[in-house]
Amino acid sequence: MATRNDVARLAGVSVAVVSYVLNNKSFVKEETRRKVLAAMEELGYTPNLTARSLKTRKSGQLAVLTNFIGNPFEAGILLHLEEAARKHGYMIAYRSYDADREQELLAQLAGRVDGIVLLGQSLKEETLASFRKKGIPVVSVMAPGKASANVHIIDVDWAAAYRQVVAELIRLEHRHIAYIGPGVLSAPLYPRMRSFAAAVEEIAPDVTLRCDWLEDGGRYESAREHLLELPAEPAFTALVCANDLTAIGACSACRERGWAVPEKLSIISSENILMVSETHPPIATLDYPREKAAHQAMELLLRLIEEPELTAPDSLVPEPAAEAPKEIQLAASFLPRPSLAQAPRLP
Length: 347
What we know:
Layout: H1 4-11, H2 15-22, H3 30-43, H4 49-56, E1 61-66, H5 72-87, E2 91-96, H6 102-109, E3 115-118, H7 125-133, E4 138-141, E5 152-156, H8 158-171, E6 176-182, H9 190-203, E7 208-214, H10 220-228, E8 238-241, H11 244-257, E9 266-269, E10 284-287, H12 290-306, E11 327-330, E12 333-335
Parallel strand pairs: 1-2, 1-3, 3-4, 4-5, 5-11, 6-7, 6-8, 8-9, 9-10
Antiparallel strand pairs: 10-12
């Protein structure tokens, strides 16, 4: 059985450096970290996680809360989170989030995980405060609808992203636009709706904007059923969707209703999962940088774990510049596709 000394010898480093890598110390150079991890893999070295946990008082476990495991967008983020966690010697436990069982979640995770990644869920403030008191940092990929000083955020700069979309719609002479997404403040996608409405108000305040709400957070079937219930002719020429499953459901409903896309109705989405490039027609969308978001979220979470003073209960808010950022905004590029065209004349 390979030992830590064997790993150090093969990687050409000291045993102390191997320990630094196993304990996720941030000062280890990335090139050195890769050498050590490669040596561990080649030798089949497995650290004694129980002994390590007793020594460091860390579990080596992270929790990720999911909304809908059947959503390819979330699945892509989970894949990259796991990749980044494994690189640093952490294991991930996935849990479906149920707001009605939040107290149970607190009891299950406290003392068992070193950090938590949200996918935009709005946990109760007392739950977040409890995690912070126990030294468990929380990072969210996607901004929660309810902001909290106890949550660090990695998300797209939706204000800038939707300005791209609105500018293109105006160039194509769309004056009647609809937005469809979750209408509940606590829903993970709610901040996108706010940003789109703000972009319309900023760029084209004379445009007629209609916002339609979905109760279940924006899934294929609810979007499809919602559009099938609309009047015989749409009162808008462009539909912007909060997520890709909603856009795919909208395209399905348009086919059933005989609304040609984009001749009668243009459709734009907001994530760029593979399926939106395979629909008929392919759906114009914003490209959410999932890999970058996941890796930055993991880097931030591990920094908070390694430097617990950054999330100590008596930390000042707003934080001094030296502390970890509360929000990191990423750029999303707009991908025009055949679902977007010149606005038709409304009846």
